[in-house]
Amino acid sequence: MKYDPADTTDNKAVTWESSDKSVATVDANGKVTALKDGSATITAKVGKLTATCALTVQEKKLTGISLDKTALELSKGQSSEALKVIYTPADTTDDKTVTWSSADEKIATVKNGVVTAKATGTTKITATVGTHKAECTVTVNAKLTGIKVTPDKVTVEKGQKANLNVTYLPADTTDEKAVTWKSENESVATVDENGVVTAVAGGKTKVIATAKANNKITAVCEVKVPIHTESIALNKTEITDLLKGKTEKLEVSFIPSNTEDSREVKWTSSAADIAAVDANGTVKALKEGTATITATTADGKHTASCTVTVKEIHLTDVKLDEMKNPSELFKGEKHQIKIGLNPIDTTDNVIYTFASSDEKVVSVDKNGMVTALKNGKATITITVKTTNTDFEKTLTYDITVEEIPLESIEIKGDVTSLEEGKTTKLNVVFNPTNTTDDKTVVWSSSDTKVATVDANGVVKAVKAGNVKITAKVGDKTAEYALKVTAKANGTNNKNEKPADGGAVKTRDSNHISGFVVAMLLSIAAIVGVVIFKKRTHR
């Protein structure tokens, strides 16, 4: 709309009218809409002024339609693919409303031109505008997404076969349903083009199926061929001269060494009285002869044997070993009787019987241990026998027992004065020192309120005073004089010796000269005993 003059100050509001609203209409903004063939005048009024426009309407009839795609391939599950309608003429004035349809909505559906694949197959999508139609052939494919081998694990015995099958995913895939087969280790198992596995040797391998439609799609079956025992062997096939009573261990080796079968074996002996074998393969020689030891696998399929020859060395003689069996013993002495065997390595089962002619002088136990009991003489009789032969021999062994009487005892101590609460150890000296008499000491105190003494001669000071500690051995006694002093107040008092110096007193000697004589006699006796023992034990 143009105004004259353009800068008029009058109201510029426009009123629009159509002379034939069935042919064309005009809105308040002057927008004209053609409706059908014909003529109409469009009038604009501003105040008292008018302007007109003669309008002739001509319709463009739709002559045909087509689609931008006449064929379409979709994958099952693909979300959508849009089709576009092409009108002829493009500027037709006819109604352009499109009606869409699918010949088989189970295969594909269409909405507003968007095609969605549902299942594999082929269908037609039709667009209809008025009396005009256009079609697109839609093919829905199912792409191969994976494969699965069944079984995925299989155990096949050597020389046997197993069939493998392939499942395709999805099951309705339109891709080629074929695979190639391969074994990673053909020394264990092979596989043919049909998925038939043949076990070659014990071990493990993987059989791989690869889809021909897509070599990136594979599946695996784990194949195991059990490793069985083929044979067993022993570390020795012959044991010669195994001495009676001796043992030898047999070891089993399995072939192949990595067998998966049980390694348990059963051991047997053809002559268990000659050579026995335990569950661990330890062979024990029992008597002279030959036996075959056999190991058998748990399944009984494999055996290995060893021939064992048992040898016996028979006893021919026995004798006393004079160098090791003294004829004189002191009272209280013990001695193990030594008997020499000839041959020394005899395999015979030897038993000994011992007896003493005077059990009060000499005793002997079942193992030949002799104990000298008192002064005198006795004869030990020894009988030697074998249980497996007729060997028997008797030996005699004469023993003289001497006694060394106890003549006196003396108490030795480090102190003669002891502070309250303290202890000291007293010891007994025997005269002669090698006496064969009983050396058991009985201790006593003349006043336990002053000092006590235990069974080991340990004296404990109790309170201040004088006391005598007595030691008694048999009929011999000795006394030890001890002074107990009160506890010092903050000072350490030195031990003081009393006037008698803790002198030893023996009740079988009344004066010092007698004691000296007794000591000299004791020394002479000790020297004599030493000379005597050297002579008897040479």
* SS class: mainly beta
Oligomer state equals single chain
Share of helical residues: under 10%
Strand content: over 45%
What Rg is obtained from the alpha carbons, in whole angstroms? 64 Å
How many DSSP helices? 1
- Main beta sheet, described? 4 strands, mixed
Q: Number of DSSP strands?
A: 50
Which residues sit in consecutive blocks of at least 5 with pLDDT less than 50?
491-518, 524-538
Record the strand order, biggest sheet. Answer: 7-14-13-10
Bulk shape: elongated
Termini separation: 162 Å
Give a written overview of the molecule:
- This protein has 538 residues and is mainly beta.
- The chain contains one helix and 50 strands.
- It has a four-stranded mixed beta sheet, with no helix packed on it. It has a four-stranded mixed beta sheet with strand order 16-23-22-19, with no helix packed on it.
- A hairpin with a 6-residue loop joins strand 22 and strand 23 (218-225).
- The N and C termini lie far apart (162 Å).
Keywords:
four-stranded mixed sheet; 5% helix; disordered C terminus; mainly beta; 50 strands; 538 residues; elongated
Layout of SSEs?
Blueprint (H helix, E strand, L loop, with lengths): L14 E4 L5 E3 L5 E3 L3 E9 L2 E9 L6 E4 L3 E5 L5 E2 L2 E4 L10 E4 L5 E4 L2 E4 L3 E9 L2 E10 L4 E5 L2 E3 L5 E3 L1 E5 L9 E5 L5 E3 L4 E4 L3 E9 L6 E8 L5 E4 L3 E6 L3 E3 L2 E4 L9 E5 L5 E3 L4 E4 L3 E9 L5 E9 L5 E4 L7 E3 L3 E3 L2 E4 L7 E7 L5 E3 L4 E4 L3 E11 L5 E11 L5 E5 L4 E3 L3 E3 L1 E5 L10 E4 L5 E3 L4 E4 L3 E9 L2 E10 L26 H25 L2
